[in-house]
Design a protein that fits this description.
The chain is mainly α and 147 residues long. The protein is 86% helix and 0% strand.
């Protein structure tokens, strides 16, 4: 599942960067600030909701409605895993930094960096799950065999 997510969903980040405007960047900055606040409070549920809103905002900004629906579908399947990976020691602060890199690339209208930052974000989340669940189970989760 993460394999598919990395390939398809990261395309939205490239497209969003190409189409970036001041409104999108300000929305991402505001969401990122709220994520930092939720993380500081240790509120993983609020952080997870804000993370999803951050990503949905980018998918919508891609301007591709089909890609938006696919991204929503994929992330709906992995929502539990997203919240789980945020609870792995050190992952929450890493995730916040990764979101910073994504929003900065979009602000610069740097499509390739935006896509690369999202790919790294997905891989890092998967690595956190791998540490939590062990290599065999996490491989099955990555390939979508256990969802």
């Amino acid at each position: 599942m993460y394999e598919l997510r990395e390939g398809l969903v990261s395309l939205a980040y490239r497209l969003a960067a190409d189409r970036s405007d001041t409104k999108l960047v300000q929305t991402l900055v505001n969401l990122w600030q709220k994520q930092k606040e939720a993380a500081a409070k240790g509120d993983l549920e609020a952080y997870g909701d804000l993370e999803m809103e951050f990503h949905r905002t980018i998918w919508e900004a891609s301007g591709n409605r089909r890609l938006y629906r696919v991204a929503q579908n994929l992330d709906g399947h992995v929502r539990f895993l997203i919240n789980t990976s945020a609870g792995v020691l050190g992952r929450l602060s890493s995730s916040i930094e990764e979101h910073h890199e994504i929003k900065e690339a979009i602000a610069r209208r740097d499509a390739l960096s935006s896509e690369a930052a999202m790919r790294a974000h997905i891989r890092n989340a998967w690595q956190a799950l791998r540490r939590l669940f062990g290599p065999e189970t996490s491989r099955e989760l990555y390939l979508g065999k256990k969802l």
